[in-house]
Amino acid sequence: xxxxxxxxxxxxIHWGLxxxxxxxxxxxxxxxxxxxxxxxxxxEFYAPLFDASKWAKTAKAAGMKYMVLTTxxxxxxxxxxxxxxxxxxxxxxxxxxxxKEFVAACRAEGLKVGFYYSPMDWRFPGYxxxxxxxxxxxxxxxxxxxxxxxxxxNYGKIDMLWFDGEWLALGxxxxxxxxxxxxxxxxxxxxxxVNYFWESEKLVNMIRSLQPDIMINNRGGWEGDFHVRERRLxxxxxxxxxDSNDCIADSWGYIPGRxxxxxxxxxxxxxxxxxxxxxxxxxxxxxxxxxxxxxQVKRLAELGEWLTKYGKALYxxxxxxxxxxxxxxxxxxxxxxxLHIINWEVxxxxxxxxxxxxxxxxxxxxxxxxxxxxxxxxxxxxxxDARDPFDTIICxxxxxxxxxxxxxATEDDIYGLADGLKKAD
Length: 425
What we know:
Strand content: 15-25%
Order of helices and strands: HEHHHEHEHHEEEHHEEEHEHEEEEEEEEH
C-alpha cells in the first residue's frame, strides 16, 4: 500500500439517481420516498454532461492521485452493468456503464482506481427487519457477493475498495413518535456485528482472489487494510494507514447552493491530515446531469496550483517525526523534515526535540526565519510579515536519515468489527 501512503490526496465522487433531486444521497431514506417512484428516476437519467475524462482531469489538476466512485450507494442503483440486478445505469435513459468510462478515464490520467460499494440496499425489507424477512435479507447478501465479483472481474486492475453501509447492518431501526429512528442502544445490537451475516472475511478472500493487490477499508464487517475517519481529523497514527474523508461543499450527494470550502481551509485540512500520517479523500457531488459544478472545479484547480509549488513537502513523505499540534506539524523523507506551520495564533515560535544533527535549512515560502538550538531542542522563529497565510513551510536537513518509531493509536468508533460472530453469540 505504499502508493496510498505516498499519494496523500484523492477525489471521492458521490453520484447517482439522488443527484437528480438535489437533496443529498440519503433523500430516498430521509423522505421515505416510494421505492417504485424513486426508481422511475432512471428513465430520466440521461446525464448529458457526464464526461469521465473531465472528472479525471479535474482530479489531476487538483493534485489528486486517485479517485473513488460510488459504484452503488444505499439506494441500490448501480452505475455499472450487473447481471445480479436490473436496477442499473445500463437500463437507464443514459444506457451507459458509467463505471467502465470512469475506470478508463482514471487510467488515461495515471490515477489509481477506487470503487465505493454499499453492501446494504434500502429496497430490501430484510435489511430493516431480518428476522421477519430473513430470506429477503439473504437475497440482499447474494446480490452483494455477486456484484462485488462483477466489479472485481469486469474492469481490470482495481486499486481500492471503499466499503460503506454495514453500520446499520440489519438492525438498529425502530418506529418512534417522530418516525423511523436509530435505537439509542443500536451499537449493542447483535445485527451490528455484521461479520457473521455478510461472512465478511470470506468475502474479502473472494475479492483478493480476483484482485490480489487491492486495498480494502474497514467498513465491510472486517478490520480492513486501512481505516476511515469520516469528516473528522483525529489524532496522529502511523501504525496503520487511514483516510479522512470530507466534502468540498458540505454534502456528499449534490445539493445546489452549498458553499465551497475556501482555498485556505482546503490547504489547512490537507496539511493537518498529512502531518498526522493520513490521506485526504475530498468529495465532490456532481449534478444529476453529470457535471462537477464550475465553482468546485475552480477551487480544486487553485489547490492544484498550490500543490504544484509545495507538493514536494507532502507527496512521498510520512507524518512526523515532530508531533502535530494546533500550530501544524511536520512531514519527513530521508534526512529532510518539512515543518508546516498553519496557525500562529497559539504561539509565536515552534519548539520541538531535534531528531538529529541539523545541517541546513531553507524556507519554501518564507525567507526570514531563525533557528535556535536550545539544549536538545530546536526553536523556530518567523517574523510576522514573513509568515505564509496558509502554510509556512521550512525544510530542515539533518546529518542522517530520520529514524522514528511513530505513533500507534486505536480508533474511537464501531466500524470494521471483525469479531461479529463471537459478539453475536
